[in-house]
Specification:
By secondary structure, the chain is an alpha+beta fold. About 25% of the residues lie in helices and about 40% in strands. Strands 1-2-3-4 form a four-stranded antiparallel beta sheet, covered by helices on one side.
């Protein structure tokens, strides 16, 4: 297996438990580590043989912007599930950053989802 990385994908999301967080979208950043075979794409040089990371990132950004979510853990899990829509992905690890959560600190959570056998 091989690895594809997406680093610091910018997102805007209604996220948090406080009333102002339910009304004003906040910036988030997402890192992904995607376990997928890249050998077919390396041989063919054909986009159909790999994960279209442009389309994936647009799907993730749209999903993050759609509806309010209380917890960063839930938002991250929902976004990781989008990566697993592609059957070629064996595993995805993500880290979601919420830079405005605490003054002077950047909060992040990390999860890994694996394809069910």
């Amino acid at each position: 297996m091989d690895t594809m990385y997406v680093s610091r994908l910018p997102l805007f999301s209604l996220i948090g438990v406080y009333s102002y967080e339910k009304e004003i979208p906040q910036p988030l950043y997402l890192d992904l580590v995607i376990t997928i075979s890249l050998s077919d794409a390396a041989e063919s040089d054909d986009l159909d043989n790999t994960l279209d990371y442009g389309a994936l990132c647009r799907d993730i950004q749209a999903a993050a912007a759609r509806e309010h979510c209380n917890l960063i853990e839930k938002r991250l899990t929902d976004l990781l599930k989008i990566v697993l829509w592609d059957d070629r992905v064996a595993e995805v690890m993500g880290r979601l950053y919420k830079p405005g959560a605490l003054p002077g600190a950047e909060i992040s959570v990390e999860r890994t989802l694996k394809r069910s056998a």
